[in-house]
Design a protein that fits this description.
single chain; 166 residues; mainly beta; ten-stranded antiparallel β-sheet
C-alpha cells in the first residue's frame, strides 16, 4: 500500500515509500495541512534501461494548505482538492508573495503538482491512509505534458533524522 506511481507515456515509474508524515498545525490565524512523502532509493524492480533510474529517489510535499480540521484524525473520510500548486497572497504591506502548497522534489529540482485530489480514510488498524492523485511537470523532460501520478500510503509513526532535511 505504500507506493508512488508516475504514469509516463513511455513507462510507469513505481517507487516504494520509506517515510510519510501527515500533520494539521495551527499557523498564524488558520489550520494548515502538512504532508511529506519520501521514497526509498530501491530500484531493484526497475529495468536497466528505464528512465526511472535517472530519478532514484523523490519526495512529495504539501505545505501550508488551509484546511477546516484541527487534527490529522479528523481527515478520515474527507476528500481535499488542491487544484493549483501555489497561490499569490498579499501581505499586510500590500506585497504579493507566492505560497507553494504542493511540490515534488527529485535530486535538487522542485516541480509543482496540480489537479491534486487527496482521499483520506482509516485502515482496519485505525491508521490514517491517503490516496493522492494529481499531475506534475514531466521531470524527465521527455515531453511537455504533465505526468499523472498516484500515491497510496499510510501514516504510521516514525522519527525524522537530520539526514531527512539535507
Amino acid at each position: 500500500m505504500k507506493t508512488i506511481k508516475f504514469f509516463h507515456q513511455e513507462e510507469t515509474f513505481n517507487y516504494h515509500i520509506e517515510k510519510s508524515l501527515c500533520k494539521v498545525v495551527y499557523q498564524g490565524d488558520k489550520q494548515v495541512l502538512l504532508i511529506e512523502i519520501h521514497s526509498n532509493d530501491d530500484l531493484e524492480h526497475v529495468e536497466v534501461d528505464s528512465l526511472q533510474n535517472e530519478f532514484p529517489q523523490l519526495s512529495l510535499f504539501i505545505d501550508d494548505f488551509p484546511i477546516d480540521v484541527t487534527s490529522a484524525k479528523e481527515l478520515h473520510g474527507k476528500t481535499v482538492s488542491i487544484p493549483h500548486g501555489f497561490v499569490e497572497i498579499e501581505d499586510e504591506d500590500g506585497d504579493l508573495h507566492e505560497v507553494y502548497y504542493t511540490s515534488l522534489t527529485t535530486a535538487n529540482e522542485d516541480y509543482e503538482t496540480v489537479d491534486n485530489t487527496l482521499n483520506f480514510s482509516m485502515t482496519d488498524a485505525g491508521v490514517l491512509s491517503l490516496t493522492w492523485q494529481g499531475k506534475v511537470q514531466d521531470f524527465t523532460e521527455e515531453s511537455s505534458d504533465d505526468l499523472p501520478f498516484e500515491i497510496k500510503c499510510t501514516f504510521e509513526e516514525f522519527e525524522f533524522t537530520d539526514d531527512d532535511f539535507e
